[in-house]
Specification:
Number of strands: 28
Radius of gyration: 28 Å
Structural class: alpha/beta
Length: about 725
């Protein structure tokens, strides 16, 4: 994929934008209204041909249009590559003309001329849907415009792109209406994005897999997001690494025109202490920024890396998370931000000298949240991401009732006043420590309006697949708001909820309101009781919604999982509630339930198993362990890991298999016992298929002569001869 010129997506003034809705977007201001329609399909028969011109994105857009029309009607429209007409702006596009037996043809000049007149002087990613009784034109400014226009048309036709097609959705991530007649109303709909930076960030990537990444990129295109942020190597753990996924994601990004941003924490990934100990001070994990030789070495390493990877469009230049800085560096530069100015600007200059058109991003993040002081300034082409990690989502960032939010808003305004380039928001509304709690969509809507007033240029949000279904509405609102920050909570819910849940829309509106709290309220004594009351009512809302929903519908599948999510959330809340009430018995029961539900539902779209969840029930996991779980086809584990029996006694061990990729698998298990313990069976096979676990019990017995003590029992799991994992339980034998 070629480099994108930095101006092509990093600069774009806020323009007129149609109010976007789910399934059937409102018309843009330029919409000509309703006239005679153009028929794509009539009585189940195709009545048109799809022509495309330009590059890979136009070809992809044409195939997507034809594919969805076929899914809707059963009719397959012919696709042809056309000879492009003369066009200054609409350099790629899709044109649908009457007739289903056409030969390759040129684009009639009237269509590109019309597009140029409409798109002239519009910012990148503006798109046009133009339809008359004589044809339909889909195009835009830049390669992504034709993709956006195509999905906008499909939404007009009733297709709902609610979520990425992660395996656990089982086809319910989208809704596709069925009809033998498909027509496009006459219109001239021109839509312009308010913000040029619209991101999803892999961030820690606990549950990312190649299949999940492909589904995410697909959804990003459908939601008009344009930048995927991927860590170079998160925490240097060699688990979530760009290099491991680059080849698989490249074609998916290219055909949608999405660019990739790479980097993240930290400098040390490129200037390793083990390789360059002379550039580090004991007690500091940031290299000696006051040493020009150290800065030059770091910059050279990054330039070499980016020269070898021309597909990287933006580079994130960050220090390590939890950075500790050399005293000599702070003495020389005065503040951490000033020191980062020196590193970032040195890299910008070196990239320019090397002829690499790769914008550099800096994160305004503690302890470098504040802008630089007088005498220091980031290069104007540097992208600044404002990361208010310590703010609260109880109220919006502009709410004066919160002193911490007021402080962050003041700092953001100072950034806008001092940095003339791109200023975006690094949003934490899907932060990991919230676990399965929190849907602060109303706060996000107020935030976006405030950001727009400040003059922000974009936003990005986490993209962890494992619990996406639990927060589908948050992710969807975030994507829609990134395109149109004027989108209100009421406008979003009044469109999304009926489209997603039909007659149960009101119950789900109540559910979203009851689950909207920032979960940090659990840190306040007494608030666990209030939050528990809200989530119990939310569970009742989901049950009422489910009673109104057809049993096999997409909405039913989502509601069933949200019901599990409420159960999980209540167990989590009870851990804090009982801790604060000094109810140790209740706490232990809540912890045991939370563990069981986390493991049961970690592949069902409502819970991410990670180091943020497992300490809630007293266990620890590694990144490598969790990544292996989510990247495997199936998994096996033991729900109960501690047993106590008397000499000569026995206990039943439950062995469980799970379907991770929802393709269905036969999971073989082997049980290994230490000397003195015997099992009625040592091998078996479980069929794991879909969201429900497959389990069986095996009786373990301790002989009467077995010495008292703890004995480890191991169960290994495999699929098609390849080992998945091993699980261990402890049997305590007593007299």
């Amino acid at each position: 994929m070629n480099h994108v010129k930095r101006r092509s997506f990093l600069v774009g003034a806020a323009g007129s934008v149609a109010a976007t809705t789910i399934g059937a977007p409102a018309r843009a201001a330029e919409d000509s209204g309703s006239e005679a329609a153009f028929a794509l399909v009539r009585n189940g028969h195709g009545k048109a041909t799809v022509l495309w011109w330009g590059g890979a994105t136009a070809q992809f857009a044409a195939s997507e249009l034809a594919d969805y029309v076929q899914r809707m009607s059963g009719a397959r429209l012919q696709i042809l590559r056309a000879r492009p007409g003369q066009s200054q702006t609409a350099t790629s596009g899709v044109l649908v003309l009457p007739g289903n037996r056409r030969q390759a043809t040129g684009v009639p000049p009237v269509w590109p001329a019309k597009a140029d007149a409409q798109l002239r002087d519009r910012v990148t990613d503006s798109y046009l849907v133009s339809a008359t009784p004589h044809g339909v034109l889909l195009t835009g400014v830049g390669d992504r415009g034709v993709v956006y226009a195509t999905y906008a048309l499909l939404e007009q036709l009733g297709v709902g792109f609610f979520a990425p097609q992660f395996s656990y959705y089982q086809g319910a991530a989208e809704t596709v209406p069925q009809s033998g007649d498909i027509t496009v109303r006459s219109q001239t709909s021109l839509v312009t994005p308010s913000w040029p930076v619209r991101r999803k960030a892999i961030e820690e990537g606990w549950s990312i897999s190649q299949a999940g990444l492909t589904a995410l990129i697909d959804w990003m295109g459908k939601q008009r997001l344009n930048i995927l942020v991927f860590p170079y190597d998160y925490y240097g753990a060699r688990v979530t690494r760009y290099e491991d996924f680059a080849a698989g994601m490249a074609p998916e990004l290219a055909k949608r025109g999405i660019v990739v941003e790479v980097g993240g924490h930290g400098y040390d990934a490129f200037l390793r202490r083990a390789d360059h100990p002379q550039y580090y001070t004991p007690g500091a994990n940031v290299f000696n920024v006051h040493d020009e030789a150290a800065v030059s070495q770091y910059v050279a390493e990054v330039v070499t890396y980016l020269r070898a990877r021309p597909e990287i469009a933006i580079f994130d230049c960050w220090p390590p998370d939890g950075a500790t800085w050399p005293r000599a560096t702070l003495a020389e530069f005065g503040t951490v931000t000033n020191a980062e100015v020196h590193v970032v600007n040195s890299l910008v200059a070196a990239l320019a000298d090397a002829g690499l058109d790769v914008p550099v991003e800096h994160i305004a993040y503690i302890p470098a949240l504040d802008p630089p002081t007088a005498g220091y300034a980031f290069d104007p082409d540097v992208i600044i991401d404002f990361a208010a990690i310590l703010r609260t989502y109880t109220v919006s960032i502009g709410d004066p009732s919160s002193s911490v939010n007021a402080y962050h808003l003041d700092v953001l305004r100072r950034w806008r006043a001092t940095h003339p380039g791109t200023l975006a928001i690094y949003d934490y509304s899907r932060r990991y420590r919230w676990r399965e709690l929190g849907n602060p969509i109303g706060v996000l809507a107020q935030d976006a309006e405030m950001y727009r007033g400040v003059g922000v240029n974009g936003i990005g949000m986490y993209a962890e697949p494992a619990n996406w279904l639990q927060f589908e509405a948050v992710h969807l609102f975030g994507a829609r708001s990134a395109w149109d920050p004027a989108l209100t909570y009421d406008d979003f819910t009044s469109s999304y909820l009926p489209a997603r849940f039909g007659p149960a829309a009101q119950e789900m509106a109540d559910y979203l309101l009851r689950t909207s709290d920032d979960p940090t309220v659990l840190d306040t004594p007494g608030q666990g009781v209030a939050l528990r009351t809200k989530y119990r009512a939310a569970a009742a809302d989901v049950a009422a919604a489910r009673a109104k929903t057809a049993g096999t519908s997409a909405a039913a599948l989502v509601l069933d999982r949200l019901a599990w999510g409420c159960e999980l959330a209540l167990a989590d809340i009870d851990i804090s509630r009982c801790t604060q009430a000094n109810d140790q018995v209740g706490k232990q029961q809540a912890m045991a339930l939370y563990r069981r539900l986390t493991q049961r539902h970690r592949f069902n779209g409502i819970q991410l198993e990670s180091s943020y969840t497992t300490p809630r029930y007293g266990e620890q996991v590694t990144r490598a362990q969790i990544a292996k779980e989510y990247r495997s086809p199936a998994w096996g584990y033991l729900p109960q890991i501690r047993f106590t029996v008397r000499q000569g006694g026995s206990a039943d061990v439950t062995i469980t298999a799970q379907d991770v990729d929802f393709q269905g698998h036969d999971v073989a298990w082997t049980l290994i016992t230490p000397q003195g313990l015997t099992a009625e069976r040592t091998q078996g096979r479980l069929r794991a298929s879909g969201p429900l676990e497959a389990s069986e019990t095996v009786r373990l017995s301790a002989g009467s002569a077995v010495a008292p003590g703890n004995y480890a029992v191991t169960v290994t799991f495999a699929v098609d001869g390849e080992n998945l994992t091993s699980a261990r339980c402890t049997m305590t034998v007593s007299r």
